[in-house]
Amino acid sequence: MYSFYPLLLPAKTFFRTWVLLIGCILFAGPGFADGMDDLSEKYEKIENGLLDNTYGIPIYLESDGEKDLMQGEVYGIIYQPFKRLSQSLSSIKNWCEIMPQHLNIKACTYEYLENQCRLTFYTGRKHYKKADNVYRLKYKFNVTALNDEYFNATLKAKNGPLDTKDYNIRVAAIPLGDESTFFHLSYEYRNGFMTRIAMSTYLATIGRNKMGFSIAGKDENNQPVYIRGIRGVIERNTIRYYFAIISYLNTLADKKDKRFESRISHWFDLTERYHKQLYEMDKADYLKYKRMEKQDQLRLQKAINPVPDIEAKCINNSI
């Protein structure tokens, strides 16, 4: 499906392919290995930046898009108990409640296959499309640390759409106090010639006016000028997934049968605070599409042979 040369595609088809590619590479993974001590040291270094920044929320962003390696990271203070966060993110099932809040994730399924815990993200354009007909990005899920002082989990995929590869996702956390947690989300993937061409064309056309969160300078009126280009892409989607985790945690206290509606509504409201960077569609359309996609996800998951103790397997097999 993706073994073509983008420059030979009709313009409309090309841009649709690029948008699908963006959806697949939005959330990829870490380029390094930090442990509990490293995370503690990082917190001490960036504490002031977390609490006093231009974002209005306690986060610290880092992004890079040089050559074929794409990297994005967000550090943040999440005002939730460490135990609640670590237990939530160590559950493979919960990732399929978190990830599909994003516009481009149409569905998520989990399974235990060949002694491995696996997540599949069904990735497509922001508007509704049946999950059966979009790209499937397959990750291996591992919880590598889960105790009272440190949590770490990774997701890895060898290949993605076009010529992207070496996808890695990492989430790590340490407790700050009884009701707060220092959280790190990082991602990384590699692209090839076709992806670089697609990226350049997208950023020069339909993506040219989209901006990120970092301030690149000031204009003639001394107003902030926000980063654009590939770093803008990375930052927008880093924040979208950060909000997905926040909205998941913030709605756990709701009644179980109300959580899905509360979650998607909460996610949209969080993104709407940053309308210039994150707006893509009206809330009514977003909610409508997500309700339809949820039904697709339930159907796809039901077709997978269930593993009663999959949660235990995904933790005990890797720690």
Describe the SSE topology:
Blueprint (H helix, E strand, L loop, with lengths): L10 H15 L10 H16 L7 E6 L4 E10 L3 H8 L2 H7 L6 E9 L2 E8 L11 E12 L4 E9 L5 E13 L2 E11 L2 H12 L10 E4 L5 E3 L2 H22 L8 H14 L2 H4 L4 H20 L7 H7 L3
Antiparallel strand pairs: 1-2, 2-8, 3-4, 4-5, 5-6, 6-7, 7-8, 9-10
Helix pairs in contact: 1-5, 6-7, 7-9
CATH fourth-tier homologous superfamily: START domain
Main CATH class: Alpha Beta
| Number of helices, counting only DSSP H or I runs of 4 residues or more | 10
Biggest sheet features:
8 strands, antiparallel
Beta fraction of the residues?
25-35%
Cα separation of the termini: 37 Å
CATH architecture: 2-Layer Sandwich
Q: Quaternary state, please?
A: single chain
Coarse structural class: alpha+beta
Overall tally of structural domains: 1
Number of strands: 10
Computed Rg: 19 Å
Order of SSEs: HHEEHHEEEEEEHEEHHHHH
Major β-sheet strand ordering: 1-2-8-7-6-5-4-3
**Uncertain residue ranges:** 1-19, 24-33
Which whole number gives the mean pLDDT? 84
- Which fold name corresponds to the CATH topology? Alpha-D-Glucose-1,6-Bisphosphate, Chain A, domain 4
Overall shape: it is: globular
Helix content estimate: 25-40%
Give structural attributes:
about 325 residues; alpha+beta; Alpha-D-Glucose-1,6-Bisphosphate, Chain A, domain 4; 8-stranded antiparallel beta sheet; two-stranded antiparallel sheet; about 40% helix; disordered N terminus
Describe the structure.
With 319 residues, this protein is of the alpha+beta class. The protein has one domain (6-208, 282-316): START domain (Alpha-D-Glucose-1,6-Bisphosphate, Chain A, domain 4, 2-Layer Sandwich). It contains 10 helices and 10 strands. It has an 8-stranded antiparallel β-sheet with strand order 1-2-8-7-6-5-4-3, sandwiched between helices. A two-stranded antiparallel sheet has the order 9-10. α1 (11-25) packs across α5 (193-204) and α6 (229-250) packs antiparallel against α7. It is globular. The chain starts with 10 loop residues before the first helix and ends with a helix.
